[in-house]
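SEQUENCE WITH STRUCTURE:
===
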Amino acid sequence: MSDDDELLWDEITPGSRSEIFRIAFRTWQENIVPKGDKKELEAKLENLERENDELEEKYYKAECDFSDNQTEIILVEHKLRKFDSRNLVTSEGKIYPEPDEFFRQFFTHAQKYLEDGTIFKSPSGQNRYRVHSIDIEKEQVFIERMDSKSPKPSSFTSKTVRKAVRRLSTGNDLKVGGFMPVLAQECAVVEIHPRMKYFETFGTIHYEFSGVGE
């Protein structure tokens, strides 16, 4: 008991001290004895656990159905690409972009990037690029390497792109450096073309040719 409590205790009359003990014990008892009916709480817990098991089962089934549905979507999309005039279908069933159409789409969007002065990065984010200029007659594109010491832009023609197209096929993705001979060119085509994208798995960046795009 602190000095202040001891002084306060001395000021309380002996007849009032017993009442204080009764109040204190009653308060202590109310705090340690749980409120509510034990059987009612046990019944509620049982219902909650049963409901939890049912929800877990539904969740697992929904998760499996969702995964199956995603797989089916991919298969149907792959089949539909065979009817897309922008694609070529080999006798083995592989689907490639039609080279001339692929370049036309890229060239059109490259002009838009040039007009807007759009800056884009390499998949790693370490290098920045933008379309420096375009020679429409020669179908030649010049890509400025903004973080390079060399002021000379990287240039490539429609022939370069058409040759690279054969490396693409749905279902087969490419790692960085496996699509175009020069990184600046590769980054430009993947970034600018509406049917190209990149993604990362296990720390490795891949390119992918999709069946959608304008």
Observations:
- The mean pLDDT is 79.
